[in-house]
Amino acid sequence: MSGHGQPVPLTARPGHALRGTAPVPGDKSISHRALILGALAVGETRIRGLLEGQDVLDTAAAMRAFGAQVEREGQEWVVHGVGTGGFAEPADVIDCGNSGTGVRLIMGAMATTPITATFTGDASLRRRPMGRVTEPLSLFGARAYGREGGRLPMTVVGARDPLPVRHALTVPSAQVKSAILLAGLNAPGQTVVIEREATRDHTERMLKGFGAEIHIADGPEGREIAVTGRPELRPQRIEVPRDPSSAAFPVCAGLIVPGSEVLVPAIGLNPTRAGLYQTLVEMGADLTFENRREEGGEPVADLRARFSGALRGVEVPPERAASMIDEYPILSVVAAFAEGPTVMRGVRELRVKESDRIEAMAQVLRAAGVEVEEGPDWWIVHGRGAGGVRGGGLAQTRLDHRIAMSALILGLASREGMGVDDAGPIATSFPAFAGLMTDLGAVLEPGDER
Ligand SMILES: O=C(O)C1=C[C@@H](OP(=O)(O)O)[C@@H](O)[C@H](O)C1
Ligand SMILES: C=C(OP(=O)(O)O)C(=O)O
Q1: Which positions fall inside the Enolpyruvate transferase domain (predicted)?
Q2: To the nearest whole number, what is the mean pLDDT of the chain?
């Protein structure tokens, strides 16, 4: 929903060790895809562990608007799909709230069906670029009419006689890749997407599960993903693993709050998502991966994070960026508590997320007494070592859940704490965040007066 209520100020108080188990919610990326592919299958898809964050609830509402039935039945979500090409024309504007994934994947899913839909979102989503999806979707024959710079609100007119497409991504984006693959489902013949850098592959994995013909091979320009159009997707039972991007917050808090030991069970560790954890190990984190196993086709482990008083700054390889793109804000917080600089390059994409995440975190870190340098696609955090971060200040969360959670974790580990002007956006991806952190022993108080 684009309506954003009253701001919810919240303050993190320092000086309390975090101990216990933190069961984080279901994976946001997989949850969106389960609803969308469920809506495109014929028959009943059942989903367990769906993230009930606002981003995903907005996608559920959108799938209803396109004609699918989506309901919660006890612990499961049940989707009655309409089949590829079976989307009905929505009677009203589709409001994707704060969710880039929601709007971009849904645009792809409807772009090769002869219907028209108008999309909007909150003030953050209305600032984000949509040309990156509507340009490749125009190759199928779809047309898009939006505001200056390819911004929402935007009307997409689906192609009447779609053509299959072969397209090399110009940005490393799983959202763009997925939009093209979903559009390809209703184009005759083979649609091919080529990616130079591997981005999260949940769409490919789930398409296979639903019975689509999908081939992945390394070609001269990169990874080639080919999907054959007009399959009859078979409904599935889906278990959504817990979200590694949400797990990052209690794990990183455990590493930097003195005296902590936090267990975060059953976290999805798909290699296209696990870059943060590799980076933390390189920084010298006391992080262990227990009970490694497979659940629902995804690698999973229990993560144990213990306070690590001697973290070292590192240079994060740019080719790792896609596998941890949403984790740079919280990594920058850990970097502040490490010795020496942490260098992050090849991260231009951070500037077009829910906020400009380099600028947003630079402001938070500087307010807390941490030196940050930045350029168009890089930034460097000069770590102050354990106990070296003053904290203080009031973070502007800019409608960005990850900035809000990162600033609060910084506050818990700092000397003076940290307030955020609005913790409301956290509900887009991790509604239970404050409760779960409080259960570990964190002190989070309403209000921002310090
Ligand atoms: O496909 C997805 O589910 C996502 C892809 C990433 O965005 P980009 O594709 O824009 O990199 C990521 O930032 C987002 O949180 C989820
Ligand atoms: C970038 C994110 O989400 P989205 O693009 O779906 O809004 C995120 O969750 O960090």
Answers
A1: 14-434
A2: 97
Q: What is the token pair recorded at 220?
A: 């001269």
Is residue 238 situated within a structural domain? no
- Domain end among 228, 259, 288: 228
Per-residue confidence (pLDDT) for residue 124, from 0 to 100: 98
Q: In this structure, which ligand is nearest to the CA of 249?
A: 2
Distance from C-alpha of 144 to C-alpha of 156, rounded to nearest angstrom = 4
| Domains in the chain, number | 2
pLDDT of residue 449: 60
The angle formed by the CA atoms of residues 328, 251 and 370, to the nearest 5 degrees, is: 50
In angstroms and rounded to an integer, the radius of gyration of the C-alpha atoms of the chain is: 21
Cα distance between residue 424 and residue 444, in whole Å:
14
Residues 208 and 168 in one domain: yes
**Inside any domain, residue 5:** no
In angstroms, rounded to a whole number, what is the distance separating the alpha carbons of residues 292 and 257? 26
Question: Which residue's alpha carbon is at the smallest distance from atom 10 of ligand 2?
Answer: 326
pLDDT at 3: 47
| Rounded Cα gap, residues 160 and 433, in angstroms | 44
Ligand 2 neighbours, Cβ below 6 Å, are 99-101, 326, 353-354, 402, 429
148 CA distance to ligand 2 middle (Å): 22
Same domain flag for 222 and 335: no
Distance CA 124, CA 79 (A): 29
Q: What does pTM read for this prediction? A: 0.98
Distance 113 CA to ligand 1 centre (A): 24
* 27, 28, 29, 225: residue to mutate for ligand 1 pocket, most atoms within 8 A of CB: 29
Atom of ligand 2 nearest to the CA of 354: 7
* 122 part of the active site: no
